Amino acid sequence: MRYACDRGETLEVRYRSHPDVAVLSYHGQRFELPIQPSGSGFAYGDGRHNLRGKGDALTLEVGRMVPLQCTAQP
């Protein structure tokens, strides 16, 4: 899925079920993020890169960077 984010950024996430990981493509790099417990919606992360979301909305947190708010594109 492609996402359009604030600050004019874009990213792509491929969700895989075996194993449960999200493959994040961001700034020319790829990160495999394992699934994390989530009370509602979904969460993936490796401690430095974290994705959280519900429906078409996604938040990317990278270290101490201000979280990036994104929306899925058709």
Question: Please, could you describe this protein's structure?
Answer:
The protein is mainly β and 74 residues long. It is 0% helix and 62% strand. The chain has a single domain, classed as Lipocalin (Beta Barrel). A hairpin with a 2-residue loop joins strand 3 and strand 4. The relative contact order is 0.25. The model has no long low-confidence stretch (mean pLDDT 95).
Give the DSSP E fraction (strand runs of 2 or more residues): over 45%
Q: Note the overall shape.
A: globular
Query: Mean pLDDT, rounded to whole units?
Result: 95
In CATH, the architecture is Beta Barrel
Give the helix level as a range of percent: under 10%
As residue ranges, the low-confidence spans are none
Q: Compute the gyration radius: what is it?
A: 11 Å
Question: Briefly, what is this?
Answer:
The protein is mainly beta and 74 residues long. The protein has strands spanning 2-5, 10-17, 20-26, 29-34, 42-45, 49-54, 57-62, 68-72. The chain has one domain (2-72): Lipocalin (Beta Barrel).
List keywords for this structure.
74 residues; Lipocalin; 8-stranded antiparallel beta sheet
Could you give the topology of this structure?
Blueprint: E1 2-5, E2 10-17, E3 20-26, E4 29-34, E5 42-45, E6 49-54, E7 57-62, E8 68-72
Antiparallel strand pairs: 1-2, 1-8, 2-3, 3-4, 5-6, 6-7, 7-8
